[in-house]
Design brief:
alpha/beta, tt1808, chain A, Rossmann fold, 4 domains, 7-stranded mixed beta sheet, 6-stranded parallel beta sheet, about 10% strand, flat
Length: about 800
């Protein structure tokens, strides 16, 4: 986006020179002279707009020509009038330059005509900020508003003459200079913080919305057993090794159902580094049993050269699974002959505890519990500091050994106390002593740092550097891509590893099938687990339900497509969704168990899983708790905005010369395209923030946006690209009955007739009422789509809508059966 190379001070100096020259010339200028002698100089010399890249003159559209359009994409439109046309602007007896536009248009026909022209150009080009100038009389306003207030009823900034222009130039600078951050101040000042004309959501007519849906006793039992079998059992020592042998999936093998190409996901880690930067070597993680520690020889050699092995992967892709598989399966023989220290920042570290304190305490505890060594036991300490004690004897207190043995021993103990006082140095000496004495390699693994904030992750990385450089240990540390990217740019990491191992998501369908099969074996007693004794009756039900899930995942590609895409490769989220489905109050689990017991073959319908993913534990869709995003939500009274999010996703999925090999579109390109369609910058940026925070798109900087008082806030990043989550939302989910049935409660409906027709019976869960209102909502969206006039080749709602017809027909058949 456009940036300003001028400073405010330079702009003020240029304005002083311009006004002085105009005063000396005293010419009666026509429109062309006004533009050439004054407005051009004001725009370029004073405000800092680039003449070539950021200024367009006489732009033609629909038979009209705008005088100036500033920015790329255009962000300000200026209508120029000759200096001889004076706007009769009323004095309001105040120093404020903030005025009502009505007071100006009612008193000055000349200004009203220019204002109307500027608003017309703004509306045609979706440019929010407009201005009218006749040299030193300048009025800045919102030519397009998304807050429901007509432009003519809004407020403006009035710079009435050279004195006011010079005195308040800083306000003009904030309003229309190239600095986008400053322009947001103008939008905030002139816009309404609470858009008018947006009706209440249908959810406001439901008592106690959103209400928690409580499971039955049977559903609650299934939920508890699913937690035990799927989540708790794999961490139980008695079955851990078998679980890792049977359930581990290699990373990087994308499911066939993934809606994004392999080249996009393969490039996600390389994209952490700017083209001008020289990044470290990136290597896909392998775990061959023929290699030491399951890692290639060159990686191990480099690690032994006092550099940590950094394992980079997004949350939930399997970093911990790789490490555990390495420990208990791949390199089990090597682990038996190693001093292995596993520092888990996920389940063990206290949130209020300093990370270095946790590491030292945990190392001390593990050495004691795993190797039966008390690091402060007298005999052991004397062994560690044997050389120091020999040196002590040769020192000034050595003569006391024979002359005063008790005093010598006291001094010696004080000396040892001093040596052990620095806990970090003491542990380092102890580890070295153990390694040499037992002839064992030291392996330190720092895991689950990605479950902590960015600072903790950086501290963990620095600790790994220290362990690798000074403790003679082979060190593994797992962190998120974003953390490494941020640290490298900020320079907070003093030494960078030459090799980074990346973990890509494994095939989620295979992971889930293996996990479910293992849980089924536990439920059926083929893999005994002590905690399951005495609950065989309930185990029959969970075993039948697990069989139905396994059969469905193997025979219903739609289910695997849903799970593979809406979780974005996050194994944790996929498992949570699966566990949430088992025993959910929104799922008829008794029917599933009954049908599976009768036939042994039952495919769970897609809409059952969709309902769980959309609603979670609630009766209706709640945007705060659901992992799904309401694509059709609007903030401003513009029915076209229902399709802004779908359009953004479809555009990011399209092929274009603007698209990078990693799948990113520059932000300025996105803004320009959506402006062409008819949306203003405010609307577009809000939609981009919402899509980012729900993981439907991601940024080059891997950021999310903070929540302000009114909405999401934060500067726009350089570029965006779509994720599998976003691709599934727009290509698969958006036209289906389950999705629209959920979203209609959260979508403001601009058509009064449609909205009032939906309110009666809005609380009903009867399938007939649900079908009727969802059809009405779908028809309303179709009518709203017709209001978008632009030619769009990458998205066509009627075609997308037809893809969801089967889901509506399925519900229609169920409704018809109730009438027969």
């Amino acid at each position: 986006m456009t940036t300003n190379t001028h400073t405010l001070a330079e702009g003020e100096a240029a304005l002083a020179r311009l006004l002085d020259a105009m005063a000396k010339q005293g010419l009666d200028l026509n429109e062309a002279d006004t533009r050439h002698r004054f407005i051009d100089c004001l725009i370029h010399d004073c405000l800092g707009w680039d003449r070539v890249s950021s200024t367009r003159l006489e732009r033609h559209m629909n038979g009209d020509y705008s005088d100036y359009e500033l920015g790329s994409p255009p962000q300000v439109v200026i209508e120029a009038k000759r200096a001889g046309i004076t706007f009769e602007l009323p004095s309001e007896g105040t120093d404020s330059i903030l005025r009502s536009l009505r007071s100006l248009t009612s008193n000055s026909p000349e200004f009203k005509e220019a204002f109307t022209q500027a608003c017309k150009y703004s509306a045609q080009r979706s440019i929010q900020i407009g201005a009218v100038a006749n040299s030193t009389q300048i009025v800045v306003f919102l030519g397009v508003r998304a807050d429901g207030i007509p432009p003519a009823d809004g407020r403006c900034l009035v710079f009435n003459g050279p004195d006011r222009l010079q005195k308040h130039f800083n306000r003009l600078w904030q309003a229309i200079s190239p600095d986008a951050t400053n322009r947001k101040l103008l939008l905030a000042e002139l816009s309404s913080s609470d858009p008018t004309g947006v009706p209440l959501r249908l959810s406001s007519y439901i008592a106690n919305y959103p209400s928690f849906r409580y499971p039955s006793d049977g559903q609650q039992s299934l939920r508890m057993l699913s937690d035990l079998l799927i989540e708790d059992a794999p961490n139980t020592p008695t079955v851990r090794k078998r679980f890792l042998e049977e359930c581990y999936c290699e990373s990087g093998a994308l499911a066939q159902e993934a809606l994004l190409g392999k080249n996009i996901l393969a490039a996600r880690y390389a994209a952490m580094f700017e083209p001008s930067q020289q990044g470290p070597a990136l290597q896909q993680l392998k775990a061959s049993s023929s290699e030491q520690y399951g890692l290639s020889a060159e990686v191990v050699a480099e690690a032994l050269g006092r550099r940590p092995i950094v394992i980079i992967g997004d949350v939930g892709v399997g970093k911990t699974s790789f490490i555990r598989h390495l420990i208990y399966v791949t390199a089990v023989e090597e682990m038996a002959n190693a001093i292995f220290l596993y520092l888990d920042l996920g389940s063990k570290a206290s949130l209020g505890q300093a990370i270095h304190t946790f590491f030292l305490n945990e190392i001390e505890q593990q050495i004691f519990s795993e190797h039966d060594v008390d690091l402060y036991e007298d005999h052991f300490v004397r062994g560690v500091y044997h050389g120091d004690l020999r040196k002590f004897e040769r020192g000034i207190y050595g003569r006391l050994k024979d002359a005063a043995p008790d005093k010598f021993l006291e001094r010696q103990i004080e000396h040892l106390a001093d040596l052990t006082q620095d806990k970090a140095q003491h542990l380092k000496r102890c580890i070295s002593h153990l390694s040499k004495g037992r002839r064992k390699q030291v392996l330190i693994c720092i895991d689950n740092a990605d479950q902590r904030d960015s600072k903790t992750q950086q501290d963990a990385f620095l600790a790994a550097q220290e362990f690798a450089a000074n403790w003679d240990a082979l060190v593994l540390v797992s962190i998120r891509p974003r953390t490494y990217f941020t640290s490298k740019k900020s320079g907070s990491l003093s030494a960078y590893p030459q090799r980074i191992l990346t973990i890509s998501p494994p095939r989620i369908d295979l992971v889930l099938q293996k996990r479910l099969q293992f849980s089924l074996e536990l439920a059926e007693g083929r893999a005994p687990l002590e905690r399951l004794e005495g609950i065989t009756v309930r185990l029959d039900s969970i075993a039948t339900f697990l069989k139905a899930l396994i059969y469905s995942l193997r025979n219903n590609r739609d289910l695997t497509e849903l799970l593979s895409n809406i979780t974005g490769g996050n194994i944790r989220e996929a498992l949570d969704l699966l566990k949430g489905f088992i025993g959910s109050a929104n799922v008829d689990s008794e029917k599933i168990i009954e049908l599976m017991q009768e036939d042994g073959k039952y495919v769970i319908p897609l809409h059952e899983f969709s309902k769980q993913a959309l609603l979670g534990e609630y009766s209706h869709y709640d945007p705060k708790s659901s992992s799904a995003l309401n694509l059709f939500d609007i903030r401003y009274p513009d029915p076209r905005e229902h399709f802004l999010c779908p359009l953004l996703l479809a555009y990011l999925l399209s092929e274009s010369s603007q698209k990078t090999p990693e799948g990113f579109f520059p932000t300025r390109t996105i803004l320009a395209e959506m402006q062409r369609v008819g949306f203003v910058q405010d609307q577009i940026e809000r939609a981009l923030r919402r899509l980012t925070n729900k993981k439907l798109i991601e940024t080059t900087e891997r950021i999310t946006f903070d929540e302000g008082l009114q909405d999401l806030i934060g500067d726009m990043p350089l570029a965006f690209r779509v994720t599998t989550v976003g691709s599934y939302h727009v290509q698969r989910w958006s036209p289906t009955f389950a999705y629209l049935d959920a979203m209609l409660f959260d979508t403001p409906i601009m058509d009064d007739k449609v909205r009032t027709g939906l309110v009666p019976g809005i609380s009903s869960f009867d399938i007939r009422a649900r079908y009727k209102r969802t059809v009405a909502f779908s028809d309303y969206l179709h009518e709203s789509w017709a209001k978008i006039a632009a030619n769009i080749v990458y998205f066509d709602w009627p075609t997308i809508r037809r893809n969801g017809e089967n889901s509506f027909q399925s519900v229609k058949r169920a409704v018809d059966r109730l009438h027969t």
